[in-house]
Design brief:
Blueprint (H helix, E strand, L loop, with lengths): L2 E2 L2 H8 L13 E9 L11 E3 L7 E3 L12 E8 L5 E8 L5 E6 L6 E7 L2 E10 L2 E7 L3 E5 L3 E11 L4 E6 L10 E10 L7 E9 L13
Parallel strand pairs: 4-6
Antiparallel strand pairs: 1-12, 2-3, 2-5, 5-6, 7-8, 8-13, 9-12, 9-14, 10-11, 14-15
Length: 219
């Protein structure tokens, strides 16, 4: 049973900024797979987006060639470029300190697996939402990339293989979900001793309806 988590309590606990700086935009960071921007924006022309962000915010860079990172999962550092949700990226960390992979067919009643990495002796949390979002936290933690309402899917800790901690879920067999995109994000920290909390990329999957065979997720 998914448990609804109060965004106010969650983001307060994670250290979300209470107010933006009036003069100098604060440094922000987010992790994700970089993609070329395919559409048209009413703001300063963006060049790139993150996978599974669906227009919640856009990317550009006045100092870096973001084409070098297309289709790569990286952590990006930047500042808001103007009043629109466009961020000017000035630094890239590869590989990122936390990652999230998803696999499965997306069929109704079928299993999917999400793997929060890297592994090791660590703690992992996984959230789900029906839409993307952006709540910048700070450059250490990164950003929360899900829109409200979001749900805490699970928490796990222990020693995990290098690829990370698995979360195994089943898509409900409800036809009303056909065509709906499910969005997920995880956070990871070392334990024993405890390290910094890092938010991973967002991962998403479209529910495709009933399929002939539910394949076992292999990520």
């Amino acid at each position: 049973m998914l448990r609804l988590v109060s965004s106010v309590l969650l983001l307060s606990a994670l250290g979300a900024p209470l107010a933006a700086q009036a003069t100098d935009p604060p440094e922000v960071a987010f992790t994700g797979v970089v993609q070329k921007f395919p559409g048209v924006s009413v703001c300063v022309p963006p060049t790139h987006v993150l996978a599974c962000s669906d227009g919640a915010f856009f990317l550009m860079s006045s100092t870096l060639d973001l084409d070098l990172y297309v289709d790569k999962n990286v952590k990006l550092y930047g500042k808001q470029a103007d009043s629109c949700p466009i961020y000017d990226i000035h630094a890239v960390e590869s590989p990122p300190p936390a990652t999230l992979a998803i696999c499965g067919t997306g069929g109704l009643g079928c299993p999917i697996r999400l793997r929060s990495g890297p592994g090791g002796i660590s703690m992992h949390a996984l959230w789900a939402s029906l839409k993307p979002g952006l709540v910048p936290l700070n450059p250490v933690k990164g950003s929360f990339l899900l829109g409200e309402p979001f749900f805490l899917v699970g928490l796990t800790s222990g020693g995990f293989p290098a690829e990370g901690a698995p979360f195994d879920l089943t898509i409900p067999s409800n036809p009303i979900l056909t065509g709906v995109t499910l969005y997920f994000q995880s956070a990871r920290r070392d334990i024993g001793p405890a390290g910094p909390l890092n938010f991973a990329n967002a991962a998403c999957i479209e529910v495709v309806g009933f399929v002939f065979v539910c394949h076992t997720p292999d990520c």
